[in-house]
Design goal:
heterodimer, A: alpha+beta, five-stranded mixed barrel, 52 helices, 27 strands, B: Alpha-Beta Plaits, Cytosine_MeTrfase1_RFD (chain A), Zinc finger PHD-type domain-containing protein (chain A), Znf_PHD (chain A), zinc-finger (chain A), zinc (chain A)
Chain lengths: ~1300, ~200
């Protein structure tokens, strides 16, 4: 390296990417150096020296001997510096080298902690931990007390030296090493990997593991909305109102003690019982004007105050008050606005603009964050905040604290409000709840309540409230009693019995018995309607509830007996607390999911946010600026909404597809797949190894492995863990994998670990399992995990990938134990994206394993498999295209395809219920478009092409007819069947097809007209799409939607689909496209020509890569969106979801059918690819046949139906022949020369014959490309078709009118909404 | 001969009892197939016998005696249901499994060695008092049992109501979200803001 540390060593002030090593070149933490204070540059006498490596000024490599270090806490960030031994002064350490981070993690944590405490010496400890947790998020291990302990001396040093820190209670505790009350939570014994680090008291009970993402979700939620108590402006244990005000309150008695909060005075049980909490304001729809504070009705015709339309704002205003503030200098405008608001015009209150500069808030930039007054609609940007509103008391200037920082917002009391020095806030008289007029009844209850108070001295629950609140208190009281009544929990009954003194109990019994003696049949029927009765009901709940049960059918229950039972039960029940139960029900780590706490997302918030989105859109439509829209609905609200959405999706899905669901959402790998895996894996096993299956499920894997290894004379050990005892006890231990200790398993170099862990949402569980496995340092890890799982080569101790096989587990690779569909068959599992099978090797074993892999040619497959992108799903589109283009597929097939497609759409419209189920898994982005497009397709059919429409109906009709004969069809949802009558008189399918075809022709001429416009954006898209699927898809969308005519674009997509089948015209299309070329963006041109020059492709496959990817992907997207809507979409989402999400039930019915179908096809193809190509041909025939079988079964394969029955099988075989002819030799080479895009392109070619029509190709396509690519070269036409196809998109897009969208939705929505009740 | 057969029968029966579990809290819709599939993860079901509920003309959760292959499996199932909430057939509440007891079988063979005979007891007989006591006890237990069931039903009803409320509330929320996601409003606005929703 650079050894320029001679005399002329340049002054270095800061280094990044640094690390320090000792004399033996081992990385060491700088804290082993002596700690030095202050600014002295004197080189100490110490012997210990370390060498600092790093980069200064971005380029210059630094290599210095250093002798001491220091920590400076004064700045914004803690600053760590080391002292150069050569007298070069202090060198600041900026960012450590990645690999070094782990080494210095602890000292960094300590430094951050000191820094935090210095800034906020009085903050509660939990804030400290939250802060640290956030900072050290990227580490696998959370910061814990243990980390701090190891730098005890450092803390001590600062505690003594720094006057601010010396005051910190928290630090003192650490320095003194006192044992903490919550040591168990943050202590050493809890170094579990990314376990929740629990700091908040209220979290302790929950004991639910959430991943880091989720935590941040919740925190953001808090930031976005008002998450502090409306009464006392402090946080803590608060309850959010579900109404429009969205305020939070300290609801529980005794909460908010820190801030002397009066609270709403509810008891714990009451809160527990409230599913929806409405504050009194929202309940009675009376709110205060946030400016003048007057309480007025806020709902209906009598409304006097109106709600601000901002998503996160729950303030109401008098039109007059707010108009005056919004136009302070213009009375005319103010009056006008006032009038408009009174008429219901939505407005945004002044709180959403900076009082000083009138700008909007931007939470992402600190200076632009808002400081919001809690008492009046006044906000300042952080940077605009007047000096008098200070975070600290400044005594000499008589400034008192008026501002407090939340994570992304600041709370202030602006200068208009006098701060009460006792409570540190302004006087808390700002909230007025409506004095509810509950006339007679209320008074009566109040009397009762008072009486009760006298007799029963329930003082525990009824803490006296201030006079001004008495009314409110009374309301609460009645509420309370009611609540208890409602809550027929054993507990409350017995509590009442037990808690009260014996005498009263006796009295109650007496009362109870009295009526009974009159009418022994039922205890409470005849009880006198008096106060007594009400009292009694409090206690004898069951009997009052019993009246609901018709006496005729329920045997009369002797109330004596009941009482006896009650008392027996009572004793038991009172011993039982909710906590005990929760503890018992704690879910094993493998099945924890994060869909909790949805209850806490307040209805009001969602409602308001949703409304605000609408309002913001409207604003934009009206031509207001984006900033205006942002004032209504901030960008963060959108993010929050989409987060909520996915959260609810996870949470609610078990209810949507509940009935077939059986526990745990376990999915097992099918035995035949396991055999395949075992076949591959056994080469790597050495005698004496221990094979650990950490989530063995049915325990088949190790059994198969053992058999196999037995055959090849390798003797191994096995160890299988799972939570549920399998039938096969072979080497099984019923254990939670997370609890297995390192010493229980042999040394890592004898360990082979892995297989199919539960995935969890976003693969969180899989990650956890893998992390645990890695702690054993096994030499080999074999995994079936979804792609989003963190790859092992990105772990702290990276593993090397030996191979990866994404096909092995595509198809019906999994089954769901314990689930049955309607036909009593076990539901089989499919994944939208087959989780790849990985083999990872510990680096020191990699060589060896690679060698084995090469010997058995595992790697080849692996490499190609790597390239299979998510596109699988989308792939069948080009396939179709291709099919059309090949002249073998004459116009007729094109037509059929078309019917297929339209039928699909039709199906989709007819099956709105499916929607509800459909919404799973797929990324939102796609979905949005998808549905839009699908909707439009139909719309387009109706408006533009009557004939087409005609044709659609009959086809689906015809197919329906067919399906009816079918047993399988039983499992379809009923809606579908209901549709049938409408379509009864239909033309024979053939005829419709013809009509459709003509129709199509007529669309072609239109293409050119919109061509230019479209092509430019299309080109953009194409070029940007080149590389990575995900981003590309997104790009595409951005571009597309960014265009002014969003709708028409979408329309275009859908139309493209409709017109796409005109295969016979493919050539002419491409010609028509070329004139537009000049308009393309220059850089695109480079790429684009390739896409339609087949010969070039032959010469230079590399160049083509990008191009093809480009041209394919967009089309895939679009195609996918529209066509596959009903089948792919359905099934893929469902699939993805059901496997991903632990609680998710298995769905079934219609969607699964699609999935199965497509799976079938591709499993056949998988064979093709992995086996001899010669046999492939024969099989593809088989697959055709198979598909025929399938398509008769599944109604959505409508097109398939027609096609298969009509197209002679020979056609299929012909194409296959030609394909395979071309393939043979090119096969291998093609494989290798292909980049990631290659496979995508090639699918079309190979799948052409068999997938021509049906939606089944989705997976098959991606799999095919392996061997298929070879032909794309020689056969030429296919590739040329690709580009033809792309232009065809361009041309047709505008046929559909824009207006159809809005109309479309109403059609679908009701159906989807109706889905709920059914479940 | 007779006795040996009887005792063998009885021994067989006891074996059967050991490998049988009693599943309670089953949804009335659960069928033999469903149980088989659900338990297939850890046991092979040999026979399922639903216990007919004679006591109450009510849709109370049904129960079944499930015979498994061996005792081990029976144990596994019982552990499974006690360790985790185990749901069969989409019933929103977990089922409970316990080891079966001989008394649960309506068709149990007579225990060899114990001879039962029946006779009338009149007032004044030696056993009359104890008989009387037993009779009262039986009655009392019956009524208490009924009271228990009644209370349980009420509780369940309440619970179901609560759950339904919670679910409804959540569904409502989800619906609202779904609307805005579905109609593209969210996405459009995000584009206008230039915000990427996916991270």
């Amino acid at each position: 390296m650079m050894s320029d540390d001679d005399d002329a060593a340049p002054q270095v002030s800061a280094v990044e990417d640094y690390y320090l090593v000792d004399s033996s070149k081992q990385p060491v933490c700088f804290s082993t150096l002596p700690l030095q204070d202050g600014d002295t540059d004197d080189v100490p006498e110490g012997k210990k020296r370390l060498v600092l490596w790093g980069i200064a000024d971005r380029i210059e490599k630094v290599y210095r001997e250093v002798v001491a270090w220091r920590l400076v806490l004064e700045g914004k960030q803690p600053e760590i510096a080391v002292l150069a031994a050569d007298g070069g002064g202090w060198i600041r350490l900026l960012k450590p080298k990645k690999s070094y981070e782990e080494e210095i993690r602890r000292v960094l944590i300590t430094a951050q902690m000191l820094h935090f405490l210095r800034r906020k010496p009085d903050d509660p400890e939990k804030n400290l931990w939250r802060h640290l947790r956030k900072l050290f998020d990227k580490f696998d291990v959370r910061p814990s007390e243990d980390d701090l302990r190891s730098h005890h001396s450092l803390m001590k040093h600062f505690a003594e030296k720094d006057p601010v820190l010396a005051k910190s209670e928290v630090l003192r505790v650490y320095v003194e090493g006192r044992s903490r009350k919550n040591i168990s939570e943050v202590g050493a014994d809890n170094i579990e990997i990314k376990q929740p680090f629990i700091a908040d008291d209220e979290d302790i009970d929950e004991m639910i593991i959430e991943d880091a993402n989720n935590e941040s979700d919740e925190e953001e939620d808090e930031d976005l909305f008002d998450s502090i108590c409306a009464i006392c402006d402090n946080g803590g244990d608060i309850l959010c109102c579900d109404g429009p005000c969205m305020r939070s309150f300290h609801a529980k008695n005794g909460s908010g003690e820190d801030s002397y909060c009066d609270t709403l005075g509810y008891s714990e049980a009451q809160i527990e019982a409230m599913k929806i909490f409405l504050c009194k304001n929202c309940e009675y729809k009376q709110h205060q004007c946030f400016i003048c504070g007057v309480l007025e009705p806020s709902d209906g015709a009598a409304a006097k105050v109106f709600l601000c339309n901002n998503a996160t704002c729950g303030h109401f205003y008098h039109p007059k008050c707010v108009a005056k503030q919004l136009h302070p200098n213009n009375r005319n405008e103010a009056t006008e606005l006032e009038k408009k608001i009174t008429e219901g015009f939505s407005f945004t209150c002044p709180i959403h603009w900076c009082f000083r500069c009138k700008g909007v808030e931007d939470r992402t930039q600190e200076p632009l964050q808002f400081a919001v007054c809690r008492r009046c609609p006044k906000s300042y940007h952080r940077m605009c905040l007047p000096r008098e509103i200070s975070f600290q008391d400044i005594e000499e200037e008589d400034i008192i604290t008026r501002a407090w920082k939340l994570s992304k917002r600041i709370l202030i009391y602006c200068l208009d409000h006098e701060i009460d020095s006792e409570i540190d806030t302004p006087v808390r008289d700002h909230i007025r709840f409506p004095k509810t007029e509950e006339p007679a009844q209320f008074l009566k209850k109040r009397l009762l309540h008072k009486k009760k108070k006298r007799t029963f001295s329930e003082a525990i629950r009824d803490q006296p409230l201030k006079d001004s609140r008495e009314m409110m208190a009374c309301v609460q009281k009645t509420e309370q009693t009611k609540q208890i009544c409602r809550q027929v929990s054993m507990k409350s009954c017995t509590e009442n019995l037990v808690v009260r003194p014996e005498k009263k109990k006796a009295k109650f019994i007496k009362e109870k018995i009295q009526p009974e003696s009159h009418v022994p049949k039922d205890a409470s029927v005849s009880s006198p309607k008096s106060v007594k009765e009400q009292e009694q009901e409090l206690v004898v709940l069951p009997s009052s509830a019993a009246r609901k049960i018709p006496l005729s059918s329920f045997p009369t229950v002797d109330s004596e007996a009941e009482k006896r039972v009650l008392s027996v039960l009572g004793n038991r029940v009172s011993e039982l607390t909710l906590k005990d139960v929760t503890r018992k029900c704690s879910v094993p780590s493998t099945h924890v999911y994060s869909g909790r706490q949805t209850d806490k997302i307040a209805l009001g918030k969602i409602e308001r946010s949703v409304q605000a989105v609408g309002a913001a859109l409207k604003k934009l439509e009206n031509g207001d600026s984006v900033n205006d829209a942002k004032a209504v609905c901030e960008p963060d609200v959108l993010k929050q909404l989409s987060k909520w959405h996915s959260k609810f999706r996870v949470y609610i899905s078990p209810f949507i597809h509940g009935t077939r669901y059986s526990s745990f959402g376990r999915h097992f790998t099918k035995e035949e797949k396991l055999v395949e895996i075992v076949d591959k894996l056994h080469w790597y096993v050495e005698p004496g190894d221990t094979i650990v299956d950490f989530c063995c499920g049915s325990n088949d894997f190790s059994w198969l492995m053992k058999e196999k290894l037995g055959k090849v004379q390798k003797k191994c050990h096995f160890k299988n863990y799972d939570l549920i005892q399998p039938k096969n006890h072979f080497c099984f231990e019923k254990r939670d994998w997370m609890t297995v200790k390192p010493n229980e398993l042999p040394h890592g170099s004898q360990l082979i670990m892995g297989l199919n862990p539960p995935f969890g949402v976003k693969a969180s569980l899989a990650n956890k399992f893998i992390d645990k496995a890695l702690s054993f340092k096994p030499k080999l890890v074999v995994l079936i995990v979804p792609k989003e799982t963190k790859r092992l080569d990105q772990k702290k101790t990276p593993y090397d990938l030996i191979w990866e096989d994404s096909e092995c587990l595509s198809g019906k690779a999994f089954y769901l134990p314990g689930s049955v569909d309607l036909n009593d068959k076990t539901v089989e599992g499919w994944n939208a994206l087959a989780p790849p099978l990985y083999l990872w090797s510990r680096p020191d074993w990699t060589k060896k394993h690679m060698k084995i892999a090469e010997e058995h040619s595992h790697t080849n497959i692996g490499k190609i498999a790597c390239h299979v992108e998510e596109e699988n799903l989308l792939d069948d589109l080009p396939v179709r295209k291709q099919a059309e283009a090949t002249n073998k597929w004459n116009s007729r097939s094109g037509k059929e395809r078309k019917t297929d497609r339209t039928a699909c759409n039709d199906t989709e419209a007819n099956l709105p219920v499916d929607h509800a189920a459909k919404k799973q898994a797929r990324s939102e982005e796609e979905r949005g478009i998808t549905e839009k497009v699908a909707a439009r397709v139909k719309e387009a059919n109706m408006s533009d092409k009557l004939p087409v429409r005609k044709q659609t109906e009959p086809t689906s009709k015809a197919i329906l007819g067919k399906e009816k004969e079918n047993d399988r069809y039983e499992s379809r949802s009923d809606n579908r069947r209901k549709c049938t009558p409408d379509h009864v008189e239909s033309l024979p399918p053939e005829k419709q097809v013809e009509v459709a075809y003509e129709e199509r022709k007529f669309t072609i001429p239109r293409k050119d007209s919109h061509h230019e416009h479209r092509s430019s954006c299309h080109e953009n898209r194409r070029s940007s799409l080149g590389k990575e699927t995900k981003s590309s898809r997104h790009n595409y969308e951005q571009i597309a939607v960014g265009m002014p005519n969003i709708k028409s674009m979408d329309g275009g997509d859908s139309d493209m689909i409709i017109s796409s089948p005109d295969s016979s015209n493919a050539r002419s299309k491409s010609r028509s496209y070329s004139p537009a070329m000049p308009t393309q963006v220059p850089y695109d041109r480079i790429v684009h020509p390739d896409s339609y020059c087949p010969p070039k492709e032959l010469c230079d496959p590399l160049l083509n890569r990008a191009t093809y990817a480009g041209s394919c992907l967009p089309s895939n997207d679009e195609y996918f969106d529209a066509l596959k809507y009903s089948d792919i979409d359905n099934s893929s989402r469902m699939r993805g979801a059901s496997i991903d999400e632990v609680t998710k039930p298995y769905i079934s019915g219609p969607t699964s059918m699609y999935g199965l179908q497509s799976r079938d096809d591709d499993s056949l193809y998988r064979h093709l690819s992995s086996e001899d190509l010669n046999t492939a041909f024969g099989r593809s025939l088989v697959s055709d046949v198979a598909r025929q079988g399938h398509s008769t079964r599944y109604d959505d394969q409508t097109g398939g139906n027609c096609q298969v029955s009509r197209t002679p099988l020979t056609t299929g075989s012909q194409t296959h022949l030609s394909i395979h002819g071309g393939t043979g030799t090119n096969y291998l080479s093609a494989r290798h020369s292909l980049g990631s895009s290659g496979p995508i392109f090639s699918q079309p070619a190979s799948t052409t014959p068999s997938f021509g029509l049906s939606g089944a190709g989705l997976q098959g396509g991606s799999i095919m490309h392996k061997y298929a690519y070879g032909l794309s070269g020689p056969s030429g036409p296919q590739s040329s078709i690709m580009d033809k196809y792309a232009p065809s998109l361009d041309g047709t897009f505008n046929i559909r009118p824009e207006s159809s969208l809005p109309q479309q939705y109403p059609l679908r929505r009701p159906g989807y909404g109706g889905g709920w009740p059914q479940n | 001969m007779e006795t040996s057969k009887a005792s063998k029968d009885y021994a067989d029966f006891l074996d059967k009892v050991k490998r049988t579990i009693y599943l309670d809290q089953l949804s009335p819709q659960v069928t033999t197939q469903v149980i088989k599939a659900a338990l297939a993860q850890c046991a092979n079901v040999v026979n399922v016998e639903f216990i007919v509920n004679y006591t109450i003309p009510y849709d109370i959760p049904s129960a079944a005696l499930v015979e498994l292959e061996d005792e081990m499996q029976a144990k596994a199932v019982v552990e499974l249901t006690t360790d985790f909430p185990f749901i069969i057939g989409g019933m929103p509440r977990p089922v409970k499994a316990t080891h079966a007891k001989a008394e649960m079988f309506p068709d149990r063979p007579p225990c060899p060695g114990i001879k039962k005979d029946f006779r009338w007891i009149k007032l004044g007989d030696d056993e009359f008092d104890s008989m009387k006591k037993q009779k009262i006890l039986a009655k009392r237990q019956e009524s208490e049992n009924m009271a228990l069931i009644k209370m349980q039903l009420e509780e369940e009803k309440e619970l179901a109501k609560q759950q339904q409320e919670a679910l409804d509330a959540n569904c409502k929320k989800y619906d609202m979200l779904e609307v805005v996601v579905q109609n593209g409003g969210l996405r459009n606005l995000a584009h206008c803001y230039g915000v990427n929703l996916d991270d």
